[in-house]
Write a structure and sequence with these properties.
The complex is a heterodimer of chains A (153) and B (301). Chain A has 153 residues and is mainly alpha-helical. Chain A is built from 6 helices and 3 strands; from the N terminus they run ααβββαααα. In chain A, strands 1-2-3 form a 3-stranded antiparallel sheet. A 5-stranded parallel sheet of chain B has the order 1-5-4-2-3. Chain B has a 4-stranded parallel sheet with strand order 7-6-8-9, sandwiched between helices. Chain B has helices at 9-12, 23-29, 60-64, 75-85, 102-113, 125-131, 162-168, 179-183, 224-234, 252-263, 275-279; strands at 20-21, 35-39, 56-57, 92-96, 119-122, 172-175, 207-208, 242-246, 268-272. The chains are: A mainly alpha (153), B alpha/beta (301).
Amino acid sequence: MSEDPFSPTAGLPPAMAQIVEEFQALPERERLQLLLEFSKELPALPEHLAGHPELMERVDECQSPVFVNVEVDESSAVHLHVSAPQEAPTTRGFAGVLREGLEGLPAEQVLDLPPDVCSRLGLERAVSPLRMRGMTGMLARVKRQVRLATAAA
Amino acid sequence: MALPHDGDEKLAAYAHPEKLVTTAWLAEHLGEPGLKVVESDEDVLLWDTGHVPGSVKVDWHTELNDPVTRDYVDGAGFAALMSRKGISREDTVVIYGDKNNWWAAYALWVFTLFGHPDVRLLDGGRAKWIAEGRETTTEAPEPQPADYPVVERQDAPVRAFKEDVLAHLGGKLVDVRSPQEYTGERTHMPDYPQEGTVRGGHIPGADSVPWARAAAEDGTFKPRAELEGIYQQEKGLAPDDDVIAYCRIGERSSHTWFVLTHLLGFEKVRNYDGSWTEWGNAVRVPIATGPDKGEVPAVRR
């Protein structure tokens, strides 16, 4: 079966495609509640990163202090760590989506993610385009860190 | 029926103390008939994570803005919104929010466009309520739809459009953005996303008074004497001046509009909500760059 190139899940790895499907299946207002669930599930930083701001990169595009760290392990799998304040649940939700959607993916697949993946969640109207930029910025920084890590390897 | 005013001593010194309540006052009156509490935040999900018991969320982007025209909802839209939130025209409305009440002040300003008789801000906003360990809940109230009349929006007294600002050039203008946005070094708030303004700088003749100068460490408003020191002594503004305040999209300048109008008793302050996202992109409007106010050019109309 050939894939519809305009489908919201086109070109996405399975975990991210499943998240996009979950969002798209809901009416707009309920998508916000799903984003809230993702914000609650965002794990705390692992021990080796907590308390080490020098290892984290600030996401300037976010309206709150948000920091990301990307690790690429020996098998080239990507691990994403994000810290975002409790007072910024929308941003935490975006971080949770990226984390769940990207965790453990091979580096090349992360780099190949379509740049518009964030807008495929269908949240623009409920969240406002202004608030969406943080997530796009977060993804851009994740990809940059993956590029750095794989170039160094 | 309106609730009693907060007799707090700091508030009493302001020109219109009835426009503010303290967290202690709110805690004491919570749940009384005739009191409606509204939370308005930058983060659209923050209310959902926990809020003042009984409060309803009003979102600036999805509920106060018109979805088609870059404008606020009209009288019928506002009446429908109030009805959904269970707010009637006679209710005392207390608004609070995140980020030093920026969006709360913005919402209060929009309520003012519709002349809601009794609308107040919670001094210190959400952060102070939480810092004091006061009660929050994630329970969403189910308001009884209220009967709110369709009131025509009155923009003229408190709202300025681009044409009004052009006609006002040479008059008192307050730019409440960060110093770097004022000089034109950057077109967005430090740490905030670039929002697509073609040019950086300020409206010629505008004074730079970043909004945060009016706020104390804990997010409450500074006492009246300190505010007078900034706006009146230092900047030479007078309560009978015709003043227009602006920022980037009109939310931070709502905070300053509130300070000048309700705390210092200025009689004619307008908020230019088009602000820099409009002015910095508009064709044939003059700007000034650098730290000086800049020369006010003759404008071709």
